[in-house]
Specification:
The complex is a heterodimer of chains A (414) and B (284). Chain A has 414 residues and is of the alpha/beta class. Helix content of chain A is 41%, strand content 18%. In chain A, the strands form four sheets. In chain A, strands 2-1-3-4-5 form a five-stranded parallel β-sheet, with helices on both faces. Chain A has a four-stranded parallel β-sheet with strand order 7-6-8-9, sandwiched between helices. Chain A has a three-stranded antiparallel β-sheet with strand order 10-13-14, with helices on one face. With 284 residues, chain B is an all-alpha fold. Chain B is built from eleven helices and two strands, in the order ααααββααααααα. The chains are: A alpha/beta (414), B mainly alpha (284).
């Protein structure tokens, strides 16, 4: 009996002094059609967990210096992964399970905007914070949710970014870009992006921009011949693309065949940002451009990012890409918010998220601050353009790894 | 510009025709809707892609291999799926091929990931013919001409050869054909092989211009149904003309009304024909 009592006390002491583990739910497409991306994001979140829970003095992040969360007595963070398989219903069910059964204090996810939507609704119902890293549909932050935050710029911000870049090209290189065409897939992503172009171009009419073509094509198109002929007929200086990798590649092939030579082609987050774009098209991928949260070319300019990438590369075998970095940021930000709140009380975490400007030295913007609608007000993107198969950062100037090309060369002169 | 659009329509339509000819053969012979038809095309595209990636085969070298493989798959589908349901109520065969289609697609995704791939370089890629203002992409042109030639061959085979006549006889009445000494079992298998060859060739011809991914064949398969219904079930030349008609509708309608409507127009024509001429435009 005595022995038993001693053992019991030993256990009790052990439990009392054991470090607290704080669970955060991470819902991503780990299997299914987007598994390749989901697994990469999981690696990035694991890197974030490592940085938070261990000492990485060389990575100058708030939680890199200490092991665990200093304000909670060195408590460790544990990301509990769940798989939504690109299925919104599953995302919702997993969010519910993580909150009720696993007792997570916050959620991050879900890559697909369509999955983020219902999952964050569950978080709202239970009153715990949800931070989306890479989901970009503007609709997410238009719902008036209290507990929802998003790091990636949405398509409205991207559109403004496009026009500002065109203005820069016109001013610096005398590019004389005026006529804009928008080409987009007929789904929520494409249609919303096109809507943003039509809305934002009104603010840029004074700069001489006008919309000359609006080409919507069906999802699952068997060909894009007619679309490209319409674009060719409108003779745009700039083409804005909201396309996925398959259709985007078909467009490039047809641009070449019909000798469509615009000055710039800018792509919303989609097919262009997929490294497969360069693999599929080789030299024909050159000169296409689009915003990206990061690119390998930036690593030498941003040492902290390079160190994060080192850890990430060791797991994944590839360099960290834009969306993955955004989800990495969501993991870091939620841990920092819990640390600053000094508690796992959701209301306290919420207050921190709503009021704090977080340092984000891995982004070119350097900061993350959520506006009243939960949207990160700093756009964490650089304009990239492909040169010889490499995504180079071309704008803003302070992050430039290469000067932009303000004019597509003729297809036969490449 | 008008000419260019017309030409685009005809070129696209020719490939649709070939996919539809394969489908109409089976439909005409057995009254079976093969939902997995488009997926066989996807398999052919993957065959070309892998032969290109791993062994550096040009798609034209791969053509007989891909067509042979899809022909073989056609026979296997007949032996292991269709044969078991051929005498069951019509819905059974439909459900069986539908299940098969899902199986093939998901298997492709499992084996080869959902990534979009392209056959990068072939002897045709990037080549084009310029006629005044007209631009004709060589891969597209060869795909169209190849499809027309293949359709012609199939039509000749059915009309002129003894085996072709046996196929026709079996289509008209299986029992009487058997009484006349036709091995209908073999005829069925052969028809599935022919149908496989059609999509095998179509898939190869398309591999240079269309991305290869597990859903590659889905839209082509769907359009093929429309075309078969338009052309009259089992009518090879009907399917051919209907294919061109759908290609033209897509091109002209897409250009003048808005590209987002191009398939809607094709399906609208289908609905109208079903209403006013259920046997199809060229049916009898």
């Amino acid at each position: 009996m005595k022995k038993l009592l001693v053992a019991f006390f030993v256990c009790l002491v052990f439990v009392a002094f054991a470090q607290q583990v704080i669970k955060i739910g991470a819902i991503f497409p780990l299997t299914g059609p987007a598994a390749a991306t989901g697994v990469k994001i999981k690696y990035a979140v694991e890197v974030a967990q490592e940085i938070i829970n261990n000492e990485y003095p060389e990575i100058e992040l708030l939680l890199g210096k200490t092991a665990g969360l200093p304000n909670l007595g060195g408590a460790k963070i544990q990301f509990v992964f769940a798989d939504h398989q690109a299925n919104p219903e599953l995302a919702m069910a997993e969010a519910e399970r993580l909150i009720r059964n696993e007792g997570v204090v916050a959620l991050i996810g879900c890559y697909h905007s369509s999955a983020t939507k219902p999952a964050s609704q569950v978080a709202e119902k239970y009153g715990i914070p949800f931070i989306a890293g890479s989901s970009s549909s503007a609709a997410l932050t238009e719902r008036g949710l209290q507990w929802f935050f998003r790091i990636a710029p949405h398509d409205g911000m991207e559109t403004v970014f496009f026009f500002e870049y065109l203005k820069y090209l016109n001013q610096k290189y005398n590019a004389n870009i005026k006529k804009v065409a928008v080409v987009y897939i007929d789904n929520e992503y494409g249609v919303h992006a096109a809507q943003m172009v039509k809305e934002k171009i009104k603010d840029y009419q004074a700069d001489g921009f006008s919309l000359v073509a609006d080409v919507k094509y069906p999802a699952n198109a068997t060909n894009v011949d007619i679309e490209v002929q319409k674009i060719k007929g409108a003779k745009p200086d700039a083409i804005f693309h909201a396309s996925y990798i398959g259709d985007m590649t078909m467009f490039v092939k047809k641009y070449k065949e019909f000798n469509v030579v615009p000055k710039v082609v800018l792509s919303y987050c989609g097919g262009y940002q997929d490294p497969q774009f360069v693999v599929n098209l080789g030299k024909d991928a050159d000169y296409f451009a689009g915003p990206n949260a990061t690119t390998s070319a930036l690593f030498k300019k941003m040492p902290i990012l390079a160190k994060i990438n080192e850890l990430y590369r060791a797991k994944s075998g590839v360099d960290i890409d834009g969306p993955t970095l955004e989800d990495f940021a969501s993991a870091i930000v939620i841990a920092e918010a819990i640390n600053l709140a000094g508690s796992t009380d959701p209301q306290k975490i919420l207050n921190v998220l709503k009021t704090t400007a977080f340092m984000a030295p891995y982004f070119v913007s350097g900061r993350i601050k959520f506006g009243p609608d939960g949207q990160n007000i700093y756009s964490a993107s650089v304009m990239t353009q492909i040169f010889n198969g490499v995504y180079e950062a071309v704008w803003p100037e302070q992050y430039q790894t290469k000067e932009p090309a303000p004019q597509f060369p003729e297809w036969n002169k490449r | 510009m008008f000419l260019q659009i017309l030409l685009t329509g005809v070129l696209i339509g020719s490939v649709y025709s070939l996919v539809a000819v394969g489908l109409t053969l089976v439909w005409g012979l057995m009254d079976i809707i093969n939902f997995a038809h488009g997926d066989l095309m996807m398999i052919s595209m993957y065959t070309v892609f892998w032969l290109y990636t791993l062994l550096n085969f040009d798609p034209f070298v791969s053509l007989p291999i891909a067509a042979g493989l899809t022909a073989l798959l056609g026979i296997l589908i007949y032996k292991f799926v269709i044969k078991r349901v051929v005498n069951a109520p019509g819905l059974m065969a439909l459900l069986a091929t539908f299940g098969l289609s899902l199986f093939i697609r998901n298997l492709a995704q499992f084996l080869w990931s959902p990534n979009y791939r392209f056959v990068g370089e072939s002897i045709l890629s990037g080549k084009r013919i310029l006629l005044a203002d007209l631009v004709i992409g060589l891969p597209q042109l060869v795909a169209a001409l190849g499809s027309i030639a293949m359709t012609l061959l199939i039509a000749l085979f059915i009309k002129r050869t003894k085996t072709g006549k046996a196929i026709q006889a079996t289509a008209q009445s299986r029992d009487i054909a058997e009484l006349m000494g036709v091995n209908t079992e073999k005829i069925y298998a052969l028809t599935f092989a022919l149908s496989g060859i059609c999509v095998g060739v179509a898939g190869t011809l398309l591999s240079g211009i269309f991305p290869v991914y597990p859903e590659s064949g889905a839209m082509y398969g769907l359009l093929a149904f429309v075309i078969v219904a338009l052309g009259g079930f089992g009518n090879i030349w009907g399917a051919f003309y209907a294919g061109i008609l759908i290609g033209l509708t897509e091109a002209l309608g897409g250009f003048y009304l808005g590209t987002q409507f191009k398939y809607a127009l094709a399906f609208l024509i289908y609905l109208l024909v079903l209403q006013f001429r259920p046997k199809g435009l060229f049916g009898w």
